[in-house]
Write a structure and sequence with these properties.
alpha+beta; two-stranded antiparallel ribbon; 44% helix; 81 residues
């Protein structure tokens, strides 16, 4: 099924922006939703705070490091608990 750009926005992007603030997918920085960028990471749109974080995620995917990245992300998150 083909979605028009506006349908795509409402079904895939708008739900990300329901809250006023969101967290950067890469660095966890809290940011205003209006200022968030989005990156397609593993076929899911993720909010990121800046072009630096966006570039990091793109580089990880281009180099096939997605699994290592997610593994180290889990380790960081579990060490914070
Ligand atoms: Zn960030």
């Amino acid at each position: 099924m083909h979605l028009s750009p506006s349908q795509f926005f409402h079904t895939h992007i708008a739900p990300l922006f329901k809250r006023e603030r969101c967290l950067c997918y890469h660095c966890g920085e809290s940011m205003r939703v209006e200022g968030a960028l989005t990156v397609n990471f593993q076929h899911v749109l993720r909010p990121v705070c800046c072009h630096g974080c966006l570039a990091v995620l793109n580089t990880i995917q281009q180099n096939g490091l997605t699994e290592e990245y997610l593994r180290s992300k889990e380790q960081v998150e579990s060490s914070l608990i």
